[in-house]
Specification:
Layout lengths: L1 H24 L3 E15 L8 H9 L2 E10 L2 E7 H8 L2 H7 L2 E11 L8 E8 L4 E3 L1
């Protein structure tokens, strides 16, 4: 019985180590700042992106996923601060009525194990076209 408890404790510690490593890998940026320009795609249901763990952790840090209408090197979304996300989403009903959308410029950096760090919206360009929405 004693050996079983030791194995369980070891697995628990290893699990915590792996979780800590993943969290740190989403926080350690490398290289130069990367500007990314894209129109916004308003995704009504945010599920099934294959990164449930990172999404949950980013929410705890106060960030949300914002979808790109023009993917950047295979990246279909970026995480942004709740403030940036709220600013964009709060205009959606007005954007639909008046028929405009935005092309945003983000600044982000690559992460040590791939992907992109939390992006910052640095510029909004108004475009006279319908906003793109998907389920």
């Amino acid at each position: 019985m004693n050996i079983v408890l030791k194995v369980i404790a070891l697995l628990f510690v290893l699990g915590l180590f792996v979780l800590l490593f993943r969290i740190l890998s989403w926080r350690i940026p490398i290289g130069e700042t990367i500007p990314i320009k894209s129109k916004v795609r308003f995704q009504m249901i945010d599920a099934g992106q294959g990164d449930l763990l990172r999404t949950g952790i980013e929410k705890r840090f106060g960030n949300k996923r914002l979808f790109l209408d023009e993917p950047y090197k295979g990246q279909h979304f970026l995480f942004v601060s709740v403030e940036d996300w709220d600013e964009i989403w709060s205009e959606l009903s007005t954007m639909r009525k008046e028929g405009y959308t935005y092309r945003l410029t983000f600044e982000t950096r690559k992460l040590i194990l791939g992907g992109y760090a939390v992006a910052k919206v640095v510029h909004k360009e108004r475009l006279e076209e319908e906003p793109r929405m998907s389920k």
